[in-house]
Every structure is written in C-alpha cells, then in structure tokens.
Design brief:
Radius of gyration: 15 Å
Mean pLDDT: 96
Shape: globular
Order of helices and strands: EHEEEHEEEE
Low-confidence stretches: none
Distance between the termini: 33 Å
Length: about 120
C-alpha cells in the first residue's frame, strides 16, 4: 500500500519556556539576525535555508527538556563551530567526537534541551 505520508522531515518543534530568550539564543547559534519585535508567542519559526523548519514552541504547559539530541544543526567545520559556540558562552555538553565520516559535539539550550552540531 502506498503511504500518503511524504518521506521528508518538515518541521522540528523545540519546547521552550521563554520564547524571546530562546529565539535570540537559536538565532545567534545559526548566525541569523534577531529582532525581538518579530517574536509573537506562542511560537517562533527560525529563519532556515532549507525546507526543514525549526519552530520554537512556548505554548506548552510544562517543558521537559530532552537529555539527548533530537536533531542536529549541520556544519562543514566542526572545530570552527566548537570555537564559535565557546565564544558565545553557550553550555557545551560534550567534547568533539570524531569518526571516519562524521564528527559532532553537543550543547545545551537555555531550557536544557541537548542540541547536536554535526558534520557528515
């Protein structure tokens, strides 16, 4: 039977408690300009360069952060990305892990969600 569901990730929802704080944090992480006046609760869509969206969702009654990454942001240069995150003062949860075809490290957003930065 052919599925009517498309084999493509559409949007990742990230539960947050403070929409403006998280919108600023994620915008800085991906190098996008941030204007607080553009944040209209309960959700904020990060400006992405791919069809897959990222939506910050502050409309939940209770936020339980994920203790492991549910998605990753791509990088071509893992070392430059690590230094960039350090310069931002963000919480780094793991050193760079290097394998033959992929490298990654994990950081923590303001709500405690784990976000992976990954090559490959």
């Amino acid at each position: 039977m052919k599925s009517p569901i498309v084999n493509r990730l559409h949007t990742t929802f990230i539960p947050v408690t403070d929409l403006k704080r998280s919108a600023r944090w994620y915008s800085e992480l991906i190098g996008e300009p941030f204007t607080e006046e553009n944040v209209h609760p309960p959700v904020y869509n990060l400006p992405m360069t791919t069809p897959t969206g990222v939506t910050l969702d502050a409309g939940l009654e209770h936020v339980t952060p994920s203790s492991h990454p549910l998605f990753n942001f791509h990088t071509e240069d893992i070392d430059a990305s690590y230094r960039f995150v350090e310069q931002l003062g963000y919480t780094i949860k793991s050193d760079i892990q290097r394998f033959e075809d992929v490298s990654f490290f994990n950081i923590q957003d303001p709500d405690g969600n784990i976000v992976m930065i990954c090559t490959g």
